[in-house]
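Subject: sequence -> structure tokens, single chain

Hey, anyone have a minute? Need the predicted structure for the following. Not urgent.
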Amino acid sequence: MNLLLIFLSALTFCKGEVADYPVPDKKEHHLFYIQRTHNTNTVVYEANFKENGQLNEEEPILAYWILYEKNGQTEPLTRIEKSFAYGIKHKADENNSREYDIHLVSYKILQLRLKQVAPFKAEIFFQGKNQEEASLDHIFIHANNAGLWTKVDLLEVYTHLPNSNELKKENISIN
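Reply:
Had a minute. Here:
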């Protein structure tokens, strides 16, 4: 096993937070967030609603940076980040107009499900190895910058089981 991965795993608290990593405020339409080993800057994903309270079919999720390394200012993702790293692909469910299959452009293996549960309210779910659907809280990416391109070694996916506030972690190896 990669020594860097062992070191980074040792930094992880049981609550799913890495030492000194801030947790973004969960605003009204918050779905989940992503953090990574590079720095504490965080990508936040929020549900995008139309004026009538229904999810926007063209772009049901909006993503942006919280730049904790720059006093917490926010910035939109760049076109390259949307296309190759942190952007979202979505497909409406043919049988339910209030649900979408979602995946990150860079991690097609991470299948998510966006569900509108009420006007102006949506939740995102992850189905893990045990096939139990759980509410996605956040993802932590263990990456290695040793080569020309950043290589992702591991995704830590943190979820809430139904009717629970306790975080559950599932590791997904990227090899």
